[in-house]
Amino acid sequence: MKRDADCIFCKIVAGEIPSQKVFETDTVFAFLDIAPVKPGHTLVIPKEHFATLLEMDAALAGPMHEAVQKIAAAAMEATGAKGFNLQVNTHKVAGQLVPHVHYHIIPRHEDDGLSLWAQSPYDSDAAMQEVADKMRATITK
Ligand code: 5GP
Ligand code: ZN
Question: With a 6 A CB cut-off, is 97 part of the ligand 1 pocket?
């Protein structure tokens, strides 16, 4: 299993940095975020070190997803939340500070003051078509 000696999340998995662990399997580890957006904010990570979602072994997607389903339900139960957001910040530009892939589970309540990002339509159908064409040409199967 790959490990990065300088990675704080690898150290948390190894127990070298303390954490409020809420769930663990042979491949997945989950613990409370030290600076939560809301109480119950949980980080779900593969035990193995992968810098971002793009490098993560796709075989871990199933175990990660199963963990998210269990932990999100538990976080809602524990905090009285009525929903949650699942977010994976990828690369610095998207807000990723810790380079060990992690899924954020953020419990949500009515009128909790949080908002999602602003959206707006494409300038034209052609502009939308152009982006879709470029993506289709790049995606490998
Ligand atoms: P990112 O910005 O990389 O998507 O999220 C990293 C998250 O890790 C942040 O929400 C931050 O609060 C959390 N975090 C950073 N260091 C520690 C730590 O040592 N322990 C815990 N429990 N959370 C941490
Ligand atoms: Zn790591």
Answer: yes
